[in-house]
Amino acid sequence: MSDISLAAVVRTAxxxxxxxxxPDPLVDAELLAAHVLGRRRGEVQAAIVRGDGIDDAAAxxxxxxxxRRAAREPLQHITGTAPFRHLELAVGPGVFVPRPETETVxxxxxxxxxxxxxxxxxxxxLGTGSGAIALAMATEVxxxxxxxxxxxxxxxxxxxxxxxxxxxxxxxxxxxxxxxxELDGTASVVISNPPYVPDAAIxxxxxxxxxxxxxxxxxxxxxxxxxxxLSGRALRLLRPGGLLVIEHGELQGxxxxxxxxxxxxxxxxxxxDLTLRDRATTAIRP
Length: 286
What we know:
alpha/beta; Helicase, Ruva Protein, domain 3; Rossmann fold; 2 domains; seven-stranded mixed sheet; 9 strands; 19% strand; nucleic acid binding; Release factor glutamine methyltransferase; peptide chain release factor N(5)-glutamine methyltransferase activity
């Protein structure tokens, strides 16, 4: 058995991360240890309680991972995976890391597909990134037909890896402005987490500012350029009564409802996430 205490190594790693301002440093230290050791986080916690050791090679690998995290490289880039609902997605440089708040946004689309009454309802994810939203719809509503479009070649490569083998999901490399013309007037749901950060609003977190792709973040002067495009494209894709779901920043709900209302959408509504911040706006196709 190694003389190096796993508890001491993880504790030191957590302190190093705390010293540079990493949020939740102990969580990240435990997750990095789990990644290096090929275990789940709970197994690492149990090993710490038991007083287990860690061998020199694993300790060295953990140290290297901590150095990367201390430089504010996203945890998910280091481990190569990101959890999303029941999924574990492959992620890395060139693709937006899916956020926990999006897990609640996709529920609106899933509920609409489940309740559509159609034998094979169509759901469309525009700007799919890693494929998180599309995969959640496809796997949680297996009788649905899901279509996803991504413009970035880098992100499309990650999404391709994630959706491989999912028979009811079609992924294309395409601009959302003209994606899936063959589906016009047939979709039950169109959902998107578009870039919505105003060009002049530089994100505070280094993980976002330095590592998330700019194409996935910035949406023009007011952050809503892609939302305007999305409104028009979704009007054509959806059948009458179909649902549009848009994720956005906490201060953008009112402006998005105004855009959608002017474009002719009905029943526009903005919804809060679990932190009680405005997070998504929905509307019904007339």
